[in-house]
Design a protein that fits this description.
With 356 residues, this protein is an all-alpha fold. The chain has one domain (2-20, 28-349). 79% of the residues lie in helices and 0% in strands. The protein is built from 17 helices and no strands. It starts with a helix and ends in a 6-residue tail after the last helix.
Length: 356
């Protein structure tokens, strides 16, 4: 499936590149250019976190794992704070006391919580304009609040019993319930708190980027154990290459499905770009975020909520899972869809007054 997606994106690259040569006659060449222009902001938001990943892993192993074990939880769950394809899977499996919990944490939790913390939040807050960030933050908070839906569905599909999933996920479930309560009783404070957390991630990724750059240029290790910046930039470049095709594909998808998207938009109170963003978000995070400038406020909230659980489910995350444990692919997709749809449903409910 991932290979099929890559071929579709490659066709988008060709179409966008040809239109750019023709003088952007069909508006797809501009989308092609926008994909490459996003490479810089993506690198600023992402590269430093990748550099810091080995240090975060070492910190968890030494400082947090003993406490986690003392509370009766499998330390595999700690690996889920890193994205599935940024070391989360390997860390979860390596820390696991139970192989089943290791699979659940490394695939389901890391593809939802880990991806959100180490990728979607820093990249989203880095790419979006100041005026778009509050709606995105609200959506992210809603998505984090419904995470237990994805965990319960994915955990049971992974072969764990419901009580085991509930126990191992208890800290995250309590965190999600607290977020939902905070959103209900003090939404503005919640959004400000999210903004501070995003700022903290921005500071951390800047520290990682600076330390990695100094090491690359001089050989001086400001932070021993840091992942090489060149390796991080390779990952970022792969995202940028996909963006060259994904944005033209997203534009074509919006045009081809214009009428169905209009009908869905009339029913949900969201514009075409918002609906198209939901379709694209299940494939890749960055194109969906890049489309938010064309969305209405309700669509931005719904897309933010959708991305927490559903991000990249039908492309990168599914491809990674095929490579490490293909038996968990159905569980991954079920968790992604259940959590993503739950997030959109709650987002539409809480933004009902904003319906066009």
């Amino acid at each position: 499936m991932e290979q099929v997606m890559m071929w579709i994106m490659a066709v988008g690259v060709v179409i966008g590149g040809v239109d750019r040569i023709l003088g952007n006659r069909f508006g797809l060449g501009k989308r092609f250019e926008e994909g490459f222009e996003l490479l810089g902001p993506t690198a600023l938001s992402m590269a430093g976190i990748i550099c810091l990943a080995p240090l975060l892993t070492a910190f968890l192993e030494r400082a947090v794992v003993p406490v986690w074990q003392g509370l009766g939880f499998d330390p595999a769950m700690l690996g889920g704070v890193l994205a599935i394809d940024m070391g989360g899977y390997q860390l979860s499996v390596g820390l696991a006391e139970s192989s089943q919990v290791g699979r659940y944490a490394g695939i389901i939790v890391a593809a939802v919580l880990g991806c959100t913390v180490t990728f979607t939040i820093p990249v989203g807050m880095g790419l979006l304009e100041e005026g778009d960030r509050p709606a995105f933050a609200r959506g992210m908070l809603i998505g984090l609040g419904v995470m237990p839906v994805a965990f319960l569905v994915g955990g049971v599909a992974c072969g764990l019993s419901l009580p085991e999933v509930l126990w191992q996920s208890l800290p995250v479930i309590l965190f999600s319930l607290a977020l939902m309560a905070a959103l209900h009783f003090c939404p503005e404070r919640s959004e400000r708190g999210f903004a501070r957390f995003a700022a903290l991630l921005r500071y951390l990724t800047t520290v990682g980027l600076v330390a990695g750059a100094v090491t690359y240029m001089t050989g001086l290790e400001l932070l021993p154990g840091l992942a090489p910046l060149a390796d991080a930039m390779e990952v970022v470049s792969s995202v940028g290459i996909v963006l060259l095709g994904s944005l033209p594909v997203a534009e074509l998808l919006r045009r081809i499905l214009r009428r169905p998207l209009q009908r869905i938009g009339e029913w949900t109170g969201m514009n075409e770009a918002s609906i198209a963003g939901l379709l694209m978000g299940g494939v890749s995070v960055v194109p969906a975020i890049a489309m938010m400038k064309d969305m209405d406020r309700r669509g931005k909230v719904a897309n933010g909520a959708f991305l927490v659980c559903a991000a990249s489910g039908f492309a990168a995350h599914m491809g990674f899972t095929f490579g490490v444990d293909r038996s968990c692919v159905p569980a991954l997709l079920a968790a992604k869809l259940a959590g993503g749809l739950a997030g959109v449903g709650v987002a539409l409910a809480v933004t009902k007054k904003e319906k066009a």
